[in-house]
Amino acid sequence: MKQLSSKSPSHRRLSTFVDWIRTPGEREERIKAQADEVRRRLRGKAESDKLVIRSMPFSGSYEKGTGLRRHMHGDAEIEGQDVDIAIVVDPDSIPEDEDRGHLIERFLGYFRASYPDTEASATRSSVRVTFVGSKINFDLVPMLAVSGTDREQLLFRSNGERRRTSIQDHIEFVRRRNRRSNDLPGRVKFNECVRLVKWWRHYREGDAHSIEEVPSILIDLLCAKAFDQCGVAETYTETLGQWFTRMADLAHRKRRVAFDDFGPASARTDDDRQWALLDPVNPDNNVLPMAWNNLQITELADWVATARDQWSEVESFERTGEHEKSRKVLIELFGNPFRHHGEL
């Protein structure tokens, strides 16, 4: 079947929309300024407490180039990109008799002392902060540096679990695919497709039955696997049609998702959860939420399969010149914001 042209209306609409959903430059500047101030204050509190901070790097979608704009009205509420700041602590600065698993509580105390009028709470692995005036949210993630390297950290959970990770490798995992798609001719890029999938995810969460939230890392891994196997086509329409076809197969058949970016792909099968989506940095970590069972997996698989069929409809309408019908399906995929921000 002949490929769609980059001049096709659906591709041009999607190009316009993906430009709109990325985080605006002025908001990026506010995030950077706010983050620098948070870093400065927390470092001061930690140093006065004789705690040595090795580094405080960005992670999450901000650093990966997959963040979304904040959109809090209409029928598609998007909080905006997740802004994660890791706080990498030198383990030698913590007294041997102190429970290192209390880092989250310690930094929650530091933050509240620095910002007494700002909402902050502990999650299972971070301090979640909401700056109401600037409408910027942060997750501050305390972790320990692993001795002898700057590329490995130890992440603590509130339940006492410790997990090896690497901020740098997680960022490199996405950037590696960004570079590969950037080297290809044409408009379609990996990180921009991830943005579109994440927006679609948020829109579907509004009508969810059993799913409270689909973690961003789960979306990252599904998109990475689809990209590794399908690449990108000339148009967003065909690319996302191919990606959702692949993701629907992965979800419905509960195929193991693993990568060999930082070593051989894990063959582990000892996880008692029904679907394995393995962290490329630490294959012992299944990123599927612990609370998920077959109900949530099935609901996600149904979402993806429905989207696969919708993308097929968009392609079919484009090939027959029924461009208004393809636009209506795109609005079904992305919500009313597409009606206003996906114009030619």
From TrEMBL:
The keyword Amino-acid biosynthesis does not apply. Gene3D superfamilies: Beta Polymerase, domain 2. InterPro entries: CBASS_cN_synthase (IPR053445), NT_2-5OAS_ClassI-CCAase (IPR006116), NT_sf (IPR043519). Signal peptide: none annotated. It comes from the Bacteria. Keywords: Antiviral defense. It holds the Pfam family SMODS. NCBIfam families: CBASS_cyclase_a. This is Nucleotidyltransferase. It comes from Nannocystis pusilla. The lineage of its organism: Bacteria, Pseudomonadati, Myxococcota, Polyangia, Nannocystales.
